[in-house]
């Protein structure tokens, strides 16, 4: 049996089961083998009934003490009976397994294994599995794999199929050079696969896991390296030299650039006038002044006679960029347009026509830049702002719109080094380490809900001093399931709590784009003093006159997200404040929020967040289908990641060639990246 064979080749797997497998993304024997257990169950010796505790999964050996009862409710059939051993008795319950009524006879002994839960006052064993004593003996002490499943597919079916596949498939030769295996203390690939599914012991399964995690990282990085080499070898067809307009832009800025900004500008300049295409990521904390760098690059493209575009993750941000970038570039003779999904079809057609005929130089927009049928005219530069909302593939599909344009990516969340390698290993990286001078650091506090009246009085004072405030609520409107502050009701209450002279507005994602725009514009102009909003303002929004950020139910947000929200203030020269309102009683929530109090450093906060939530949620990459390592965890396995990185970069040309050849016939292990 070959790894590329269909799972139908495995005995006992017919049409129906293979369809269920397909739901899990398993079509071939190799994919089946690459479907690793989620965890393991160890079947322990049966214990006396009176020692059972709530929450535990345990086995007992006991005899059926009562008749099996079947209770029918509207859509369920509840099957139950009591069992007894020398120490006591307990009730067993099952759903919809009516056949048990005929199978379980009073007085007969079985071993029952299941989860102990509490119903009303009593402990019950929920959905126990039933074994004969001999049958159970054979399972005792063995680590049984528990697989991710889908409705209709049982763990036993999957387990049997994997066991057959491993027994019969032709496993390929190990693709890793012996040197790398030795240097990293790894076990052989085939042994690791066998062990991860059917481990001999806790220790050996750790070794197996280490090898597979290493493989996942190794292959991922190898692919990223290939992409990078491909990009770096891409000839620059848009050689862009500094123009008079570029010099004017820099001379007329209302502030002095930081050293970091100056460095990045010269890096961009070098890249764009060099032999090869630019592929650069700019990393910098919130408020470090990334936008101007994008503006410079866009101007470089436009003033050399080409087009450039910038893609933002939200309508609100695209609109804001359109206004602020337009203000800077139009006086320099650059024609700027906006393209977003929310525009009317007629308007979009109009804008697309202008783009195609090169009546506009700089195009600012949302996803519409990829989704709409846009034909660019000599697109020389693609910028994506606040990158964590976009995946690698989206970045690529925009870059593919032109004939190999330069690519500039601006990250929203500062990313710890290990993660940067994985997310952006295909890019050159610039880091802005400092915030513009004269910025006072934002004063933060974590408070309970009883602090609200004080906070409102504080906001009143700030407004009286000419400033503005944001208040963030997690929800748009009241929900029955979740108890959290919502924008709609909150605004109503806030209007009552604040003096009549203070204008309050609300903003959320469910509003029409034109409404959102109006609200944002009035806030940016200072007409509205307090903006009650959902997280639609999370990224990019820039209203430097706002000095207070108050976040309700702050415990509901991730730390990196809170840092982004806090970054909406502290953008001007005045002292700014951030009030995190903890709407929960839990100590854990408070401890987590205290991190925000202690630190204003996005890199540190992202690292802390990564510990708690993992990279998928933190960077929104899980939804985009990337970074789906089967076993590897970027945070927990950072050590292995570093080792894999070193191993990839240490390979001689000859070793690398050998690896590539062998990998060609190896397991489709890395369901990790699609390029
Ligand atoms: P981010 O890095 O979060 O995207 P922005 O580019 O939006 O930050 O910049 C935040 C604010 O700082 C803007 O109002 C911008 O005009 C201002 N700014 C940028 N660079 C400097 C600088 N060198 N000195 C003072 N203010 C600056
Ligand atoms: Mg920004």
Features:
binds adenosine-5'-diphosphate; OB fold (Dihydrolipoamide Acetyltransferase, E2P); alpha/beta; DNA polymerase, domain 1; 6-stranded parallel β-sheet; binds magnesium ion; single chain; 675 residues; 21 strands
Could you explain how this protein is built, in words?
This protein is α/β, with parallel strands linked by helices. Among the domains are: 1-41 and 143-170, DNA polymerase, domain 1, CATH 1.10.150; 44-140, Nucleic acid-binding proteins (OB fold (Dihydrolipoamide Acetyltransferase, E2P)); 443-599, P-loop containing nucleotide triphosphate hydrolases (Rossmann fold), CATH 3.40.50.300. The chain contains 24 helices and 21 strands. The protein has a seven-stranded parallel β-sheet with strand order 11-12-10-13-14-9-15, sandwiched between helices. It has a six-stranded parallel β-sheet with strand order 16-21-20-17-19-18, sandwiched between helices. Strands 2-4-5-7-6 form a five-stranded mixed beta barrel. A hairpin with a 4-residue loop joins strand 3 (69-72) and strand 4 (77-85). Helix 10 runs parallel beside helix 11. The longest helix has 31 residues, at 202-232. The protein starts with 14 loop residues before the first helix and ends in an 11-residue tail after the last helix. The site of magnesium ion has 4 residues, from loops.
How does the SSE layout of this entry go?
Blueprint: H1 15-23, H2 29-33, E1 39-42, E2 57-64, E3 69-72, E4 77-85, E5 88-95, H3 100-103, E6 109-119, E7 122-131, H4 133-139, E8 143-146, H5 155-168, H6 178-183, H7 189-197, H8 202-232, H9 244-251, H10 259-273, E9 279-284, H11 291-303, E10 307-311, H12 315-329, E11 336-339, H13 345-356, E12 362-365, H14 368-371, E13 379-384, H15 392-399, E14 406-410, H16 417-424, E15 428-432, E16 443-448, H17 452-464, E17 468-472, H18 487-497, E18 504-507, H19 513-525, E19 530-533, E20 546-551, H20 559-566, E21 577-582, H21 587-598, H22 602-619, H23 638-650, H24 653-664
Parallel strand pairs: 5-7, 9-14, 9-15, 10-12, 10-13, 11-12, 13-14, 16-21, 17-19, 17-20, 18-19, 20-21
Antiparallel strand pairs: 1-8, 2-4, 2-6, 3-4, 4-5, 6-7
The site of adenosine-5'-diphosphate has 17 residues, from helix 11.
